[in-house]
Write the structure tokens for this entry.
Amino acid sequence: MFIKISTVDFGPILLVTLRLLLAGMLFLPFLIQKKYISHFRSLFPGIIILAIINNALPFTMFSYASLGATSNMLAILNGSTAFITMLVAYFWLNESISLKQVLGLIIGFTGILILVNPFNASATLISSMCALIGASCYSISGNYIQKYHLNSNKFVLIGWSMLFGGLLMTPLAIFNLPDHLPSTNAILALLWLGIVSTGLAYLGFVRLIERIGAVRTSTVTYLLPVFGILWGYIFLNEEITWIIFGGFIFVMIGMYFANSNAQTTLEK
């Protein structure tokens, strides 16, 4: 919702740049402390990699996708993150995946289809491709963190990667400035995206990868349409039908199975 509000006024490039710089600046006073600055040099290669594949590139892709797709379709495409993450983990990390987890992913994605009603959704081919590229970036970066930075200081890794992601985008942003002053709503949406949805949320996301792995962490994408519908009911007086309630149940069951440990696994 906030991406769609702010992208129109700021444009995809400037929005992503400011979003990442805001999130990075939130952590900068802590990152320059002695106990954290000592980790910077050893983690610098990983910081740059994540600045690109976990921040700059996927954020830009979803911002562009929002210009040509409905929120329903974006929710479906973002939901593919869990499937892509599972495949990447299976082939790259040689991670065993239980049949119960596969069933959970399928049930959860079915819930998303029920919730967002894809028959009423629309998206251009370019927007769909941008969203899928963004989802793939999230999947790869989650597995990358699990493989190479499981024991790294996540605060340093994510904090600096957001700041460097914004710095890498700055030259592009200079040549993509809007021709009018953004509205108050767009500015407020940007502040929320940078401080809350990016700065605070990503730290929790990485801590989840550390504790339960990339595949099960990726299932949080199934909650996006659920909360979208919830906020619509609370703030926009949108109706919650029995079909919506049924989709919510599917998502919850899928989340339970996908995050459970099972004995029967798919071995490579």
User: Anything to note?
Assistant: The radius of gyration is 19 Å. The longest strand covers residues 97-98. The first helix runs from residue 2 to 10. DSSP finds twelve helices and two strands in the chain.
